[in-house]
Design goal:
3-stranded antiparallel β-sheet, elongated, 1 helix, alpha+beta, two-stranded antiparallel ribbon, 5 strands
């Protein structure tokens, strides 16, 4: 019983380390679709009036997980508007 009580802090540490990795998600890439063939990587670029915005649209998506990939928020109905980010060559 005493050895179990002595090992409780170790068990708590292992559980906390497991939870830190199990419940955190990796940062996904974000791509903006300028036109049918041009995508812009905006993963580390915050939206603003000088970079890009997601404006209201009737049947468009703003950000994708990869070029020609899936929309990150399929139901948002917003259009990507480039306001100064250079597209990939």
């Amino acid at each position: 019983m005493k050895t179990l009580i002595k090992r409780l802090p170790l068990f708590a540490f292992v559980l906390a380390a497991f939870a830190a990795f199990a419940f955190s998600s990796p940062k996904t890439e974000q791509w903006g679709k300028v036109d049918e063939d041009t995508y812009i990587d905006v993963t580390n670029i915050p939206p603003s009036s000088t970079t890009y915005t997601c404006d209201a649209a009737t049947s468009a998506h703003c950000l994708y997980d990869a070029p020609d990939g899936n929309p990150l928020s399929p139901g948002e109905n917003k259009m990507f508007v480039n306001r100064g980010v250079a597209p990939l060559k």
